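Thought: the user asked what Flagellar protein FliL looks like in 3D. I have the sequence; next I should run the structure tool and report back without guessing.
Action: structure_tool
Action Input:
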Amino acid sequence: MGAQKLFFSDSPSPTGQAVIKKEEGPVISVGEFTVNLQGGAFLKTSIALEGMNEKSEAVLTAKDAFIKDRINTVLSSKTLKDMQPEVREDLKHELITQLNEVTGNQVQGIFFLSFVYQ
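Observation:
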């Protein structure tokens, strides 16, 4: 598992606990995806990934085909209900978990640069 720098904020969070901030990693665009959702709807989205550290960029680039395949597989298994804004964070977490399986835990974030469903 890769090491990650963590920073502690001097100001407490609203709950009174210290806030842990992660170091930002490199952001790599993986492109646009158009998939048929379960139930006949479709999704068109552009996705970028945030790597864990500078070494992640090389790993993510080398695993591009595996990453795109896993994204297509996850997205095409979803329904229109799974695309709603209130559950989109769940989709992000699922994608990060799936992508970490194929990249050896090199993904810490995912960004939907565009997101259109119908």
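Thought: the tool returned a structure. Summarizing for the user.
Final Answer: Structure for Flagellar protein FliL predicted. Confidence is low (pLDDT under 50) at residues 1-13. The chain has one domain: 25-117.
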